[in-house]
Amino acid sequence: MNVSTAKSILGIPWTVKVDKKGIEKAWKQTMRAVHPDKSFDSQSKEKTQRANEAKDVLMSYYFPETAAEIMDKLRRQQDEEMEQILLRKQQQEARVQEEYQKKLEQHRKAMEELNKQREQMRKDYEEMMRKLQETKDTPHEGNATAGSGDRYPKKRQKRCEGTRVHRKTEDSKEACALIEEIKKFVRERFVAAERVHVPARRIMEEFTKNRENTTEHELHMFQLHLRRLLLAAWPQAKCSVHKGQRCYAQIQLI
User: Does this model's pTM top 0.70?
Assistant: First the structure.
């Protein structure tokens, strides 16, 4: 497109002195007439493109820019782009730093809370150990030695009269005599028999029937040692439960 065609498109007469404001004014008037938003002409799009091209031709013909101006313009554009890039980078770094500081603060608070809990647990443990040590060092009632570690710190009940004070049967003469009496009773008062069940209660009644006085302790000793002594004297005997009672089979009282 030449200058004559460009002037005719924008409606600029040859007699008028051309300047930048005149070109801009003529271009705007042409755009109001041919723009697709203002005109219903089917060729409005092509006319708009030709009007823009005519403006560029006239501006470059009458007001050509020097190489220095073009370089300055490019340099300013590059500087603006670099400034925008640096600004975005600084903003991003600031956001990252802010998030890092928030996480660091949260971690610091969590560690402080954890240290408080550990300190409280340590104090509770020390207090518990102190109370336990005081309990061990305090003499219990009925115990003259402090810190002896008695299993039963409370006051224990007195033993019934006639009960043994020992812990082993062999240490008591009365217990040994009772054991020999039970052995003699088992050997002399039983015989072998089949299909017979002798209740343990009946055996205890027969044992105590001919004795003058049988204490609770002796009854307990009899129940404790009867099975062992009876099975030792009569190996064929069997201990079982018959009709809801503890019985001894394969033997019979005489």
Answer: no
